[in-house]
Predict the structure.
Amino acid sequence: FYECKSLKSITFSKDSKLKSFGIESFSMCESLKNIDIPSSVVKIEDRAFSNCISLETIAIPPSVKYIGAKSFFKCKNCKSININNNLIMKSIENEAFSQCLSIEKIVIPSSIEIIKEKAFIFCQQLKYVEFLTDSKMISFEPKSFSSTGIETLLIPVHLKEIGEECFYYCNNLISVKFPKNSELVSIKRKAFYQSNLKEIEI
């Protein structure tokens, strides 16, 4: 369905057995506003919904184990990403949600251990990122939250590394707090460059 520019909505039957959205399966469907991802889906491959510029919401069911690189790249009018906390996915891949310009909030599921390079870069309205108390997060890769609108950040307790330029040009970032039992080992080069930090609690 690549570049089906008039496609507005996709609906699957309740008993759908669909397992995967393939590479670029709905990429460049510029009129697509709604999609109901079946609970049978295990994989969303690279660029599956990239440049779906009219997509309004993204809901990821608990069955999903893999969200590929640039899978929702440039879904610039999407305001809501709901990733079910019961999924067992380990990482959010490179640029998976990059340039989703309208997203304001995301809750990262507990199972996620790695946010890969540029996963949320240029999500300019993203003000709030929540990590649950039982988060298994261990790594933010380079530029994973660069040029976002994040204002405050509570670092997950098991996080061990903050990659290069991770929060680069986060001009609204004023506060970063590390828990007392933080397992952080390394903050890489220019991790908070050009942020507006006023408070750091370590």
Q: What stands out?
A: The mean pLDDT is 95. The CA atoms of residues 2 and 26 lie 5 Å apart. DSSP finds no helices and 17 strands in the chain.
